[in-house]
Amino acid sequence: EAEVAQSPRYKITEKSQAVAFWCDPISGHATLYWYRQILGQGPELLVQFQDESVVDDSQLPKDRFSAERLKGVDSTLKIQPAELGDSAMYLCASSSRLSLAGGTDTQYFGPGTRLTVL
Amino acid sequence: KQEVTQIPAALSVPEGENLVLNCSFTDSAIYNLQWFRQDPGKGLTSLLLIQSSQREQTSGRLNASLDKSSGRSTLYIAASQPGDSATYLCAVQGGGNKLTFGTGTQLKVEL
Fold first, then answer.
1. What residues of A are in contact with residue B41 (Cβ under 8 Å)?
2. Which residue, among A1, A36, A106, would best test binding to B if mutated, counting the most B CBs under 10 Å from its CB?
3. Where are the alpha helices (H) located in chain B, listed in sequence order?
4. What is the tens place of the pLDDT at every residue in A57-113?
5. How distant is the Cα of B90 from the closest Cα of chain A, in angstroms?
6. pLDDT digits (tens, 9 = 90+) for B30-47
7. Which residue in chain B is spatially nearest to A50 when comparing CA positions?
């Protein structure tokens, strides 16, 4: 069964350092999502791509976070510099299509990257 | 802005008990509602998806209902087992495929 792949699974870094996370969606899925989940809370959407274009990055802290999906397949999320409050699980998800009018397209989630900032 | 609330935040039950998890949302203009399971330190697994036009969905021992007009959903788990121990998250889908999640219910099923 096809799955969303993420790496690394765990990352420990010191504040002010740069970190990067990688996501490979299910083959053929045009829409890719990055979520952040703080311990004890539900995931919150950071950025959403349709192919290589950003559809929604309204919740992405753009002063330190960046995301790209250059060829419309895999994606990288970067944080520079990392802060203590960035410690969280970073989840990637993909779905087969985007319906701007809404729809019923299931999002499939990867295992996540657990980030700890010291 | 859509807000999703889940009650209770945590629940501990003996094995074999039937239980209900609750989810409420503030904006009824949704396209669907999903229930997810999350094991500690892991990603999310989709359990059930209810379209806005549907009232309920069933999968094995799980049954989810949706009352869109009142902004409520319930997840019913029959004959609970220790393997059901996990955090259960509900999420509503609005325009653009955007999911808004609740904070989850942490379930522990004891032997």
1. 89, 112, 114
2. A106
3. none
4. 999 999 999 999 988 899 999 999 999 999 999 999 998 875 555 555 788 999 999
5. 9
6. 989 999 999 988 889 999
7. B96
